[in-house]
Design a protein that fits this description.
Urease, subunit C, domain 1; 2 domains; TIM Barrel; alpha/beta; 5-stranded mixed β-sheet; 405 residues
Length: 405
């Protein structure tokens, strides 16, 4: 735990939007930022100063995680049948790993039995804050059906939205297409009828809740847009002919102000450590005439076009879904955006100020601003020279407390 008052100083600083000339000194008073001053600022007496050689920036926001899964093969599927105490242990470990990678806020987009809501409400010192969606809503036997959110028809949808509201979720997640890891679902088609999906979105909006739609297929993206979803996760654009996202669709996304999370961030070393890649993923790629490398290149191309259309993008990894999507992979996601042509400042903003805004937390975290939470990350290296430094956190504060990691 840091002292009640302290100062952190580094010659390179990113405030959530841009790099600050000459670095910065950040004053921390309890759980809040009390000031952001120049590097050579004379700190008042009684404020211990820690000077670092690297880059100081806001704690990162991972906008798509599954805390109930430890990233091992089948872990997400097993979560629905694990006892609550085992699920809670996995959540606690997932949060520690997120913190170790510099993440101070997570948006959980699929748990079981609303287990993450309790962690959100506890707000333990040094533990990343949680934005919780509860069980994702899907069709019977649909993607992530094993987490318990199966609905079909108006009556079931009304009951499910009411249940989520009763559990005080922050956002609702719905599966608008099949999933890469759920056998029997169609990643090229859609889930839910148009009327059901529209009703679900309207009911959520009436309760002041945003709806985020999982969509791997181009059809699923259009399905989510037609229903009025607020955000689209994955945004892969699978068709039978490859990955395709027409400009007309991107124009609709931009006009509607829909936020896209491409769920980049894939640890290739972890993938190479698997005995074989998951068969479900290979089948989906082969059906579209793709392999991993061609699909990756196509997805970077879509990301570049998202940027060209001015579509807001946030960084969420889908952490926990599989070994390459582990809870320390956020640096890989930011690197992918750089490969898609994003400037460093823009890429970092997708995981700080931009992601905080998408989570409705822009008045709480995501920027180095006087009065916001003291969620601060220091990495060993100059981020202006490349993303490698993100893999080397040297200090992580969550609400002014040293992160538990």
């Amino acid at each position: 735990m840091h002292a009640q008052r302290s100062a952190l100083r580094a010659p390179v600083a990113f405030d959530g939007s841009s790099f600050l000339p000459g670095g910065a000194t950040v004053l921390v008073d309890g759980d809040s930022i009390a000031g952001v001053e120049p590097f050579h600022y004379t700190v008042p007496a009684g404020w211990p100063v820690t000077t670092y050689d690297g880059t100081l920036l806001p704690g990162l926001v991972n906008a798509h995680v599954h805390l109930v899964s430890d990233s091992s093969l089948g872990s997400l599927e097993r979560a629905g049948t694990r006892p609550d105490d085992e699920v809670d242990a996995v959540i606690a470990q997932s949060l520690r790993e997120e913190a170790a990678s510099g993440v101070t806020t997570v948006r959980d987009l699929g748990d079981t039995r609303y287990c993450t809501v309790g962690f959100r409400d506890r707000g333990d010192p040094g533990v990343p804050r949680v934005v919780a969606a509860g069980p994702p809503l899907t069709v019977p036997d649909g993607h992530c059906h094993y987490l318990g959110g199966c609905v079909e028809g108006p009556e079931a949808i009304r009951a499910a939205v009411s249940e989520h509201v009763e559990h005080r979720v922050d956002v609702i997640k719905v599966m608008a297409s099949g999933g890469m890891l759920t056998s029997g679902t169609d990643v090229f088609g859609v889930q839910h009828t148009p009327d059901d999906l529209r009703l679900l979105v309207d009911l959520a909006h009436a309760q002041g809740l945003q709806v985020l739609a999982h969509a791997h297929s181009l059809a699923g993206i259009v399905h989510a847009l037609d229903a009025g979803a607020d955000g689209i996760e994955h945004f892969t654009g699978f068709t039978e002919h490859g990955i395709e996202v027409p400009d007309a669709v991107l124009a609709r996304v931009a006009e509607a102000g829909v936020v896209v999370d491409p769920t980049f961030g894939f640890d290739r070393e972890a993938m190479r450590g698997l005995p074989t890649p998951p068969a479900r993923i290979l089948e989906s790629l082969q059906r579209a005439g793709l392999d991993f490398e061609s699909a990756y290149a196509a997805r970077l191309g879509v990301a570049a076009r998202l940027r060209a259309h001015g579509i807001p993008v946030v960084t969420g990894v889908d952490s926990g879904a599989s070994p390459p999507k582990h809870h320390r992979a956020i640096a890989f996601a930011i690197t992918d955006l750089l490969r898609a042509g994003y400037a460093m400042e823009d890429a970092l903003a997708t995981a700080t100020s931009g992601a905080a805004r998408a989570c409705g937390l822009q008045e709480v975290t995501g920027s180095l601003v006087d009065g916001l939470a003291a969620d601060v990350l220091v990495v060993d290296g100059d981020l202006r020279n490349g993303p490698e430094a993100l893999s080397h956190p040297v200090a992580v504060l969550v609400r002014g407390a040293d992160a538990v990691r």
